[in-house]
Amino acid sequence: MKEIILASASERRLRILSECGLRHRVVPSGVEETVEKDRHISETVQINAARKAKAVAAGERQSIVIGADTLVVHGEEILGKPEGEGAAREMLERFSGSEVEVYTGLCVIDPDGGKAEGFERSSLLVASLTAEQVERYFRLLGPYDKAGGFSIEGVGSLLFDNIRGSYFNILGLPMMKLRELFEEVGLDILDHVGK
To answer: One of 38, 69, 145, 191 is an active-site residue; which one?
Structure first.
């Protein structure tokens, strides 16, 4: 049985795979994510995911490698991980009372079945917050090392609602899309579920 490798340092992605019972190990790609303004965000996240998967697959030739990249869109602005707490606070202020979209690109590379790529899009509504509420929630929402700066889990569940699309996409790993990509390269993801 081939080993699954997650080409990501994301603790949430690791936890999602573990909670699904998928045996895997983590090998962070070290690839820098890029955003090109002339590309649609759905292309950008797929390109970034593929670059991560290819970088790890080059050294893991007998394994199934999963690459993923998540970005958030607010209005016309594309947002990745905030550069520090100040940027995360500004994001929360801007998101207040509006809708945000979350895009995750996925790439699965199998040494025998080739490569499959895709993306998932979800949207959610952010509660309207006063300046005081922004400060109170901000202190509770960290760490801020996620696209858009925040998680919809924990305290975040009090702020984010009206989810359209995949909940797991918002967490950074759309599992139904992942299952489909496994099928595209001739694999059954259930074969990798174990105790």
So the answer is: 69
